Amino acid sequence: MKHTLILFVAVLLLSNCSKKSNEVSEQKDTVSVSTTPSLSAMALDLKNKNGLTMKVIPLGGKIVSLHVPDKNGVLGDVVLGYDTIEQYIKGNPYFGAMIGRYGNRIAKGKFTLEGKEYQLATNNGANSLHGGPDGFHNVMWNLKPVTTAEGEALEMTYLSKDGEEGFPGNLSVKVTYTLSDKNELIIDYVATTDKTTILNLTHHSFFNLTGDGSKDVLGHEVTIHADRFCPVDSSLIPFGELKKVKGTPFDFTQPHTIGERINKDDQQLKYGKGYDHNWVLNKKDNSLTLAVKVKEPVSGRVMEVWTTEPGMQFYSGNFLDGSDKGKGGVFYPVRSAFCFEAQHFPDSPNQNSFPSVELKPGATYTQRTVYKFDVEK
Fold first, then answer.
1. 18 by DSSP, 3-state: which?
2. How far apart are CA 198 and CA 212, in angstroms?
């Protein structure tokens, strides 16, 4: 974990983050866990006029809390996470994290670009997952409070050096989290490279709209605006086929609870131990469109996901197993969270029929994904 233990000078700067007076400086040297500051000292806060609050830390650009109201106006934290920085260093590396350079899996960690084969760091059996063990979830981002036309925001930047985790090109990335007064978490991505590369950025918050991570999410009602999904093999690598969801447990074109069909005798569900697949969104271009709606009927909380991306990974928390001690000492049981990760498709560099993920010098990668919160009584 070469980037997770950070130079003490950076730690001192981080202690000023809550005052929103300094930009955090990226450093790559190490510091022992015993010298890491408290979570509250590292976190930067966002708040909108309706009382929604969010905390973010530089490690992985991770959202460590997100409080939104239920139908009675009571705020609850709807993302899984930890109480201490030490837990974020040692625990689940993806809770609330920025993901890159390549969200999802690349088969055998290999791809060919402009006639050259590249070998990436592998961390999911033989495959590369979420950019490798030291992907963007595991680096220190520069954080700076800013104000956008849509609300209070945090601007995060990171320079990924040529060859990092095996990827070509020096990649400059800027991600902006905005908490709007419309109760939206807006995530804007911008990136450029000095060498042809591949790129697939996403965000990986683990949501539970009950506000209680000790409960499962099987009663959440989900709608996904997608008529097709990507079937996978036993290592969760797509075949290249885009299969119609109609007549399968993957049909969420009308609302279904997560738990309604998750244990059906279906080979795709067996491979993922539940849902862990890419849905092909019903869209013709890269405009911002509604992709997903989730409702938790007891609290009345609703979350919509809007995105410019062509795909959406739906993960139903299948690999949470009750061993992870989270906020307030709660152990997170199986399927106690869900993730909706807006993205290009898994293993796209090796699937010619999938939308391209190449980024060339002189071009600019852009993406917007919005998580919008509301209530229905």
1. helix
2. 37
CATH of the domain at 275: 2.70.98.10
Dihedral sign, CA of 174, 175, 177, 182? Answer: positive
Residue given tokens 């080979």 in the structure block: 267
361 within a domain of the structure (yes/no): yes
The three-state secondary structure class of 256 is strand
Mean confidence (pLDDT) of the chain: 91
- Tokens (6 digits) for 247: 């007549």
Give yes or no for residue 365 having a pLDDT over 90. Answer: yes
Rounded distance between C-alpha atoms, residue 247 and residue 21, angstroms: 55
As annotated, the active-site residues are 204, 341
Q: Residues 268, 339: contact at Cβ < 8 Å?
A: no
For residue 216, the SS3 value is coil
Reduce the DSSP state of residue 3 to 3 states and report it. coil
pLDDT of residue 41: 86
Q: How many CB atoms lie within 10 A of CB 37?
A: 15
In the prediction, which pLDDT does 377 show?
A: 86
The residue segments making up the domain with residue 325 are 221-375
Phi and psi torsions of 14, nearest 5°: -60, -30
Is residue 213 assigned to a domain?
A: no
- 101: preceding bond cis by omega (within 30 degrees): yes
Tokens 């998750």 label which residue?
262
pLDDT (tens digit per residue) in 347-358: 999 999 999 999
- Across the strands, what pairs with 126? none
CA 332, 335, 134, 57 dihedral sign is negative
Residues 231 and 355 in one domain: yes
How far apart CA 314 and CA 278 sit, in angstroms, is: 6
Residue 47 pairs in a beta bridge with 53
> pLDDT at residue 99 above 80?
yes
Name residue, tokens 């109760």: 183
Q: Is the pLDDT of residue 330 over 90?
A: yes
Q: In whole angstroms, what is the distance from residue 58 CA to residue 66 CA?
A: 16
> Are the C-beta atoms of 187 and 175 separated by less than 8 Å?
yes
- Do residues 353 and 235 lie in contact, with contact meaning Cβ atoms separated by under 8 Å? no
Rounded CA-CA distance 267/14 in Å is 47
Candidate from 2-6, 172-176, 201-205 with smallest mean pLDDT: 2-6
Q: What are phi and psi of 125, to 5 degrees?
A: 65, -130
